[in-house]
Amino acid sequence: MDDRTIKPLYLKNSDIQVCESKRITDYELMDYLSRCIGDSLHCLQLDRNLWRIYVKDRDSRNKLLNEGLDIQNIAVSFYDTNPYSSGATDANQRPLKLRISGLPLSVDDSAIHELLIKLEVKLTSKILYEKIRHPVTNKMTSVLNGNRFMYIEPLPEGRSLPRVNNCAGLRCLLFHYGQPKVERKLLCTNCWKTDHTRSNCKNEPCCKVCKDPGHSPGDEKCPFYEHQKEITPFSGATDVLSNFFPCSMDLYGVQHKSAEHAFQYTKAVRCGDLNAANSIKDAKDALSAKRIGDKIKPNEQWISTKSKVMEEIVENKCVQVPMFKEKLRSAKRNTLFVETSHNDEWGSGLDREGTLYTKKNHWPGKNTLGSIIGKVADKVRKRKKSDQWSKPKQKQLSKETTNQRDIVKMLRDLRATSDSDSVTSGQNDDTEYDSSD
Ligand SMILES: [Zn+2]
Ligand SMILES: [Zn+2]
């Protein structure tokens, strides 16, 4: 069956030359190809550095694309489209490669087919098995590494598949090009299950702590009910401990209306969104600043540095806002500060009542902000007597960030970083990230 609608495959000649003096001939390449796909080879032509390879059936084409070829001990990969043409091929028509990792080899292909049906994607190839490659030469061995890959019809614009999936009752990870690097897990804030959101929840409301229905966190019925005596809960714009408390503070030479403004502004700048940064600076209150900041897609750098930034902000607030400093100074030595506005990352994940009456090791949140404030409070107490801490720490901070003063330059650098990120994104990135930023 000679199908003329089958597109050619491409191979860069430079990819298969072992040395300049010995160039591979069409006869030699034909020989290598025939050993892999038999007499399915139809035409082989070299145009400058580019080989065009026409085959007679789709299976052979897929086989070459998926498995590559071993030529003089070099593992060679073929191109699905002309690697030198700039956008001549409609990228939307190209099949999308999907990789699944984390599944035991014993899981049957039929379970993967079920998962793909559930995800509403259409396979255009078989399910294939990845092989271990030599770390330097990239040469493929005959040993499987357990990962599966396959090609599917391209997804509609804007759609991507979830990173974490369940296949045959097992958790597995799914990767494809164009998948957002940072993925938010589904979480229902009504029943706290992780496979749907509140808007399509059909369950009774459940307790966020024990996940049972019929009561709220902090209720005596909750198995984790206990009065927490040694804590200092805080939240909201009227509480000086809260980031929402209106106060004028300077960070990296920029004046802010609250610690929250400072935090969201830094996020915007570090994630390369100068417009958002300006809107945050002008936002009338902390909540408005947070809302703008929440819309900014965080980059890896921000995710890995934001708690350090938060610490700097709290320290600066302590130096610049006397009321805040006094609150920390006068707090009981063994108290645990805890943010109580339902935030799972910065706070206990519960409200004030829920926090006060739930065993602290069962709070759903990490209370990162509470811990930071505790750390700064310790420093304040240590310096209580000598009180050498009234000099703003700003000097040291600005030294650290001198090169960031020039926002234009910084944005340029950041864009360059995130551009190079996006090229390599998608395939090997196992990062999961599920909380607010
Ligand atoms: Zn639910
Ligand atoms: Zn409960």
Automatic annotation (TrEMBL):
Gene3D superfamilies: YbiA-like (1.10.357.40). Residues 402-418 have a biased composition (Basic and acidic residues). Residues 237-380 form the NADAR domain. Residues 381-437 are annotated as: Disordered. Residues 419-428 have a biased composition (Polar residues). SUPFAM superfamilies: YbiA-like (SSF143990). It holds the Pfam family NADAR. NCBIfam families: ribofla_fusion. This is NADAR domain-containing protein. It comes from Pinctada imbricata.
